[in-house]
Amino acid sequence: MPPRITRVDHPRKNGVWPNGEPKSVRDAYDRMVADQNKSGGKNSGDNKR
């Protein structure tokens, strides 16, 4: 008799930390938002393509 194959599907959690994001990530995001607000937001024209 062939061995039994058990398949376990784990749901994907893209970009999600199991215990919430680390404080360093939150601090970096807050800094990024503050810098964008100081420079007039992300649509200020600095990133024209």
Nearest-angstrom radius of gyration? 21 Å
Mean pLDDT: 77
β content, as a range? under 5%
Helix count?
Answer: 1
Largest sheet: none
Order of helices and strands: H
- Quaternary state of this entry equals single chain
Query: Overall 3D geometry?
Result: rod-shaped
> Residue ranges: pLDDT <50 for 5 or more in a row?
none
Helix amount, in percent? 25-40%
Distance between the termini: 62 Å
The count of β-strands is 0
Structural class, please?
mainly alpha
Give a structural overview:
This protein is mainly α. The protein contains one helix and no strands. The longest helix has 16 residues, at 23-38. The N and C termini lie far apart (62 Å).
Task: Please give the structural blueprint.
Elements (H helix, E strand, L loop, with lengths): L22 H16 L11
List keywords for this structure.
single chain; 49 residues; mainly alpha; 0% strand
Question: What is the gist of this entry?
Answer:
This protein is mostly helical. The protein is built from 1 helix and no strands.
